[in-house]
Amino acid sequence: MPSLLTLRRPPRRLPRPLLVPLVAATVACAVLPAQAAPPSAADPQLTEAAAALTVWNADDVRGYLTLPTTSLHGAAVKWASSKPRTITPTGEVNRPAHGRPPAHVTLTATVRLDHHQVKRRFDVNVRPLPEQKPMEGYFFPYFAGERYTDGEQVYFGASRGNDPLHWDDLNDNEPVLTSALGEKGVRDPFIVRSPEGDKFYLVATDLKINGGKGWGYEMRFGSHYLEVWESTDLVHWSEQRHVKASGDQAGMTWAPEATWDPKLGAYVVYWASNLYAADDTEHTGSTYPRMMYATTRDFRIFSEPKVWNDPGGGVIDSTVTKDGDWYYRVTTDDKVVGSCTRDVVLERSRVLTAVDTPDTTPRKWQLVDDCVRTGVGTDWVEGPTVFKDNSGDGWWVFMDEAGGRGYLPVHTDSLAEPDWSLPSDYQLPSRPRHGTVLPVTAEELARVRAAYPNS
Known about the structure:
Strand content: 35-45%
Number of helices: 4
Order of helices and strands: EHEEEEEEEEHEEEEEEEEEEHEEEEH
Shape: globular
Radius of gyration: 22 Å
Strand order of the largest sheet: 1-11-10-9-8
Distance between the termini: 33 Å
Number of strands: 23
Largest sheet: 5 strands, antiparallel
């Protein structure tokens, strides 16, 4: 990735329902869940609008649902639930306690168009909550880089026990997830665990540089899509989904990540985009990357993208973690927020979706520390991934020194008062580029090692 400088040019309290999502997914090889067929109606448009509705994963609900309030032809949709304490009419889900049987709920959609209406019912199976287990290992999805013909796909690494500094490649150092959609290359894979703990979403950049059209083209006309896989066990993965997230004025959609926001009852998904004027169809105007965001519950339907962090110059590769009441954001910054060039800055906010623009004074995301990579003696870095040490011994920010040593494990005892250090004894996977370190249980760690062994 070129320098940023070159880019110029007890039922819990339920959150308010999300705004109507406007950006939909294009799904490869999608199989609709088993559910009742829509009723017949005199108006074929009304029938078509009812038929278009889907409750995804209806037989295996593990989180909040997207229940659309509109359908085809401008039809309005209103939902009712047979067990509103389990699933509300706006899709919030309270799962049965661990050890209890699944809950069976009927959701009824009333579809209205031109003073006519039809109803469609969906039988839904809500799984009980999983058993809570301690985190005793780490899982590392990443890509290997454009220097390899198959390097822009998803590779897996696993820690040696509960040690965040010593790792093994998995699957004989061959990719596990490969892209068959979009540009047919994926970079920057990010994995997020659901708040309930038993579902995982992996999102990645739709980008291929090896054999592709080059960095200059991709910064101006790169993909507006995200590549998505989901799993309940880190071993069995869904079909790839090709999901439009960026608006048409974006030049690219790079390094997506996601954080669950309990106040919104949704994941906040964020990425870097160059933005161009609506009349600049050739994308020749001066620009720079800024961080955008959208919300989703299922990584199928996204809200319209909005600017999240635009300090007036280039920022990319934000990653977020929460500690107490604060969200901490680590970002690769081009001497805009911080005082060092091509460095990493640490900021915090109590509101995940707080927006900063060039006119925001003071910034809503408070600067905690800057010049992080300079302080520990690295070359320029990108792709930071932040996670808490399972032992409770502080925090790690792995940073990709892409032009040098690859990923470097940087440690701090505290995010509020950081004291960065780079240990001398570590062995990461053999060739990781921008990826994610995810704390996992001992059972999950053993499962991925067994599923993706090295010969």
